[in-house]
Design brief:
Layout (H helix, E strand, L loop, with lengths): L2 H19 L17 H17 L12 E9 L2 E9 L10 E7 L4 E5 L4
Antiparallel strand pairs: 1-2, 2-3, 3-4
Length: about 120
């Protein structure tokens, strides 16, 4: 389960490293160039992401049939995000029954974890 944090962290390091390597005349994209996604689109993206985590062995197979419980737009220090929540009561550990998947308002995957932070 610690891979749920490690993988996105490594991806962020990679993405920011690539930006630093861009020289003059090499642009990089910003989220504000893309249209915001709807909460339904965020839920669909998150459901696909959960399926991918199950397929890759990062989550128990019981998560494969779980649908999103809620989709909320929350604001953090760096701006608003979509937070898609999944609940799986078949998991014994209560701390691992609720999974949160985070996206930018424009649909870029940010992270997933069991803490909601």
């Amino acid at each position: 389960m610690k891979h749920l944090i490690t993988v996105p962290l490594l991806a962020l390091i990679f993405l920011f490293g690539q930006t630093a390597l861009a020289g003059p005349g090499h642009g990089h994209s910003h989220d504000h160039h893309h249209s915001p996604i709807t909460n339904e689109q965020a839920a669909a993206k998150a459901t696909k992401h959960v399926q991918k985590l199950v397929k890759n062995g990062k989550l128990d197979s019981s998560w494969s049939g779980v649908t999103s419980k809620s989709v909320e737009e929350k604001s953090y220090g760096h701006g608003p995000e979509w937070v898609v929540t999944f609940e799986n009561k078949s998991i014994e550990d209560p701390k691992k029954q609720t999974l949160y998947v985070f996206y930018t308002i424009n649909g870029k995957y940010l992270a997933s974890n069991f803490t909601g932070q």
